[in-house]
Amino acid sequence: MTLTVNTSHRIVTALVEDKPGVLARISGMFRRRGFNIASLVVGQCELPNKSRMTFVVEGDDKTVEQVTKHLYKLLEVIKVNDISEQNIVERELALIRVKTNPQTRSEIMQIVDIFRAHIVDVANDVTIVEVTGNEHKVNSLQTLLEPFGILEVMRTGTIAMNRGLQK
Amino acid sequence: MQLTGAQIVCESLLQEGVDTIFGIPGGAILPLYQTLPEYPGLKHILVRHEQGAAHAADGYSRATGKPGICWATSGPGATNLVTGITTAAMDSIPMVVITGQVKRSAIGSDAFQETDITGITLHVTKHNYLVMDAADVAATIKEAFHVATTGRPGPVLVDIPKDVQEEMAEFEYPTELTLQGYKPTNEGNASMVRKAAKLINGAKRPVVLAGHGVILSHAYDELISLAEKAQTPVIATLLGISSFPEDHFLYAGWPGMHGMAYSSLAIDESDLLIAIGMRFDDRITGDISKFAPNAKVVHIDIDPSEIGKTIEADVPIVGDAKHVLRQLIPLIEETSRVDWIKRVETLKSEHPLIGVNDTDKLIPQFVINELYKATNGEAIVVTGVGQHQMWAAQYYRFKEPRTLVSSGGSGAMGFEVPAALGAQVGRPDKMVWSICGDGGFQMTMCELATLAENKLPVKLAIINNGFLGMVRQWQESFYQKSYVATEYSANPDFVKLAEAFGLLGVRVSERNEVAAGIAKAMDFDGPALIDFIVEQEENVYPFIPSGKSVADIMEGPRHEKVRR
């Protein structure tokens, strides 16, 4: 299995009101309008009763423009930013459960070190690796661990923030 | 003041200026109904099916410009509203829809007549609410009216559990709203408006495309000023019909699939489209790559997501049509475009609609033309969807705003009877004609009882061709006349049916009976129905097949005798 970064992936963030049903409204809008999202992450933020969301959207400028406009049509959406072209910090967290035996353990640990990832659980025959980074980094680690036998992968999806003082 | 949730709903509706509610009671909305007698200012029209309630509220709004109000009980009551809500959403009609819901503790338990109506209507409302506390009812209703009527209007649904309707809370109608994420733009960006003016002033063959937004923002006078100052022909969209007087010399019809050929041809030859409050629907554009190939586009719309959705605008202006036109008009240079206006006149004379007197048969176009003459173009015309709708839009000539009430985007058959009911309730001073297809009429004809009960003098004209005519036309054109499931071989006797409901029933099957039949219905003091037995296989022309361009237009057998 090889994973590649799709260059048409665009990152859009939104500040939304933390109300019941807001996630259904937003995810439903993406489905209804036929927009493809690679990932959608929502979590609390520095403001009370608000959440920040990060969307990785597949598409071109026109698609992202329409995504932005349709997000704004939802009453709970306060601010939308397409930060794809900006200088940003992108992070995703992944947990990877990989088959391990005494012969492969040290090699896996080396790879994990190179990626500045962590081993967060070790058992006789499996190891859980925690990795943080951009989508590309997580994909690369996943590719390198593939030959050992990946049993399970859980990824959070990308969150992103622009560098320096927020515009 | 401590009131029940139900009383708070009624108080809030009065605060918003509501006078009429269309609805049907049921278990989960009974507290609201039982409160109604305390509020004589709220008139309730008891319809026969909830779809009728929604379409009636829609028709009321289209005819008056005020928001339409309907309500229904939970479960099937609420789901029956959905077609009407969708119709309003597609055509940007301000509506506030209230549904009863099962009591709070039962939500999610599959209780009797429980349905997740906020989930179901998520994408067919502008916004919706489930109110879980009587103390939130007033603020929610205020917000619902604000959202429904501002920006691009649309239906807003408020779902209220039965025990919230019964719960006591302090009532004070809020004066302010807190809507952080909702700020519609009314004023156009000044530099964009200047760019638009420059394009208009420099254009040789401009046309205005006037959409429903002109009507929704009451920009009729501004549209006339712009057209006259810039000497620009005005082409309407289907829902933009009546935004500009049809007897004005600059009016140039409506384009697209069944629009006038000359309108489509004028767009084709134009070098600038000034699109106002319209959304370049596929019924207008056909093949986008061949639509208005030589034209630059100024696109004015209050909904930013409509701009650039299907047609790229050279000058996009987000704003309310009335506001933007008021900004734009002073920047327009007075001009005369004699050659272009003459050219459009030539197109009109070379590509007229079919002549209604070219046959002895009773063709639908003749009926509409006679209706136009009999009413002097002053009636409110409500249509269903299909052939009769297109003929009504083609052959009736609309002079005053809000006189055509028709389901555009959603294309909901069955709209014609309840929407006419709502239009008549909203405009008791006007004669309302419901032009019906025999198919669509049978979808909501139960509302004849509502007309009779409320003595609403709606006149109904069934264009009875015994077919789902538009579908049949497509079968004729694209499926070698294989008429699968489109013939209504056992239509009821509509005259007897009208009489059974307490209406006057008239049958007309010959050309020479048409005028007298119409006069009889118009003279009757009450609702009346005319069953026009028309040519069965008459087609709507012009016809640009779906996805094609003006080059593929079929103008029809203009001077050919109608076959049978």
Q: How is this fold's topology laid out?
A:
The complex is a heterodimer of chains A (167) and B (564).
Chain A: E1 9-17, H1 22-32, E2 36-44, E3 50-58, H2 61-73, E4 77-82, E5 88-99, H3 105-114, E6 118-122, E7 126-133, H4 135-145, E8 150-155, E9 159-162
Antiparallel strand pairs in A: 1-3, 1-4, 2-3, 5-7, 5-8, 5-9, 6-7
Chain B: E1 2-4, H1 5-15, E2 20-23, H2 30-35, E3 43-46, H3 50-64, E4 68-72, H4 76-80, H5 82-90, E5 95-101, H6 117-120, E6 127-130, H7 137-149, E7 155-161, H8 162-166, E8 168-170, H9 190-202, E9 206-210, H10 212-216, H11 220-230, E10 234-236, H12 261-269, E11 272-276, H13 282-285, E12 296-301, E13 315-318, H14 321-328, H15 338-350, H16 364-375, E14 380-383, H17 387-395, E15 404-405, H18 416-426, E16 432-437, H19 438-444, H20 448-453, E17 459-464, H21 469-478, H22 494-500, E18 504-508, H23 514-523, E19 528-533
Parallel strand pairs in B: 2-3, 2-4, 4-5, 5-7, 6-7, 9-10, 9-11, 11-12, 12-13, 14-15, 14-16, 16-17, 17-19, 18-19
Antiparallel strand pairs in B: 1-8
Helix pairs in contact in B: 1-7, 3-5, 3-18, 11-14, 12-15, 16-17, 16-23
Word description of this protein:
The complex is a heterodimer of chains A (167) and B (564). In chain A, strands 5, 6, 7, 8 and 9 form a 5-stranded antiparallel β-sheet that branches. Chain A has a 4-stranded antiparallel β-sheet with strand order 2-3-1-4, with helices on one face. The longest helix of chain A has 13 residues. The N terminus of chain A is likely disordered. The relative contact order of chain A is 0.21. Chain A folds into 2 domains: 74 residues, ACT domain (Alpha-Beta Plaits); 75 residues, ACT-like. Chain A, domain 2 (Alpha-Beta Plaits, 2-Layer Sandwich). Chain A contains 4 helices and 9 strands. Chain A has 167 residues and is an alpha+beta fold. With 564 residues, chain B is of the alpha/beta class. Chain B folds into 3 domains: 169 residues, Rossmann fold; 161 residues, 3-Layer(aba) Sandwich (Rossmann fold), CATH 3.40.50.1220; 177 residues, Thiamin diphosphate (ThDP)-binding fold, Pyr/PP domains (Rossmann fold, 3-Layer(aba) Sandwich), CATH 3.40.50. Chain B is 36% helix and 16% strand. Chain B has 23 helices and 19 strands. In chain B, the strands form 4 sheets. Chain B has a 6-stranded parallel β-sheet with strand order 3-2-4-5-7-6, sandwiched between helices. A 6-stranded parallel β-sheet of chain B has the order 15-14-16-17-19-18, sandwiched between helices. In chain B, helix 12 runs antiparallel to helix 15 and helix 16 packs across helix 23. The longest helix of chain B has 15 residues. The interface between A and B is medium-sized, with 21 and 16 residues.
